[in-house]
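Quick log. Single chain, no ligands specified.
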Amino acid sequence: MKATTILVIDDEPKIVRFIQTSLSLAGYRVLPAYTAREAIQAFEQERPDLLILDLGLPDMDGYEVLENIRSYSTVPIIILTARDDEQNKVRGLEMGADDYITKPFGTPELKARIEAVLRRAQWSPAPGDITEFRWRDLHIDFRRRRVKMRDREIHLTPTEYDLLRMITQHAGHVLTHTELLTQVWGEEYRNDLAILRVNISRLRQKLEDDPREPRYIVTVPGIGYTLPSD
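-> predicted structure:
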């Protein structure tokens, strides 16, 4: 079975070595890149299954790398941020990152974040699950992971897709912030409202005619979100 390939982009050799050693022992194939140029070249040549991207690179802003790759790929991306750097974390999520890891971090957290993101990227319906969803102009084919709005395909990151899947599979019911955070990201995210709000905002930008007046993902103030059933 082909090993999952992870591209690690960071200009600090110690961090790259730590990640490479930790993930190689866990069975991943790890590609190192120390500059934005190396990262983009490696991505285009190797098409890795996941990226771990530090935002502070010597030759190009890490956000530019994120924007560049997001312009043509929905590959899972985890960004590395400094401790308590809320602004950079939110900006990275707004630009399409699936998750973040705060420095310093240990092997268990690193592996857990990677496994969670890959699980979202690889989810497919089990026997007996709903395989299709249609409502108004929205059509989701869960078997093919395809989302369409008025027959126009909408490209979602793995996290955006999983969040939309949760909301549509509970259409007509209100899902609380905590329910969405724990089901999509994991128990350790139960209080991370920022990551939920950013991804809801990104979904609305892609699905709604007017994201300020959403018809598909409706806010229930102080509680959570719902997709109306009629």
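The CA atoms of residues 15 and 59 lie 18 Å apart.
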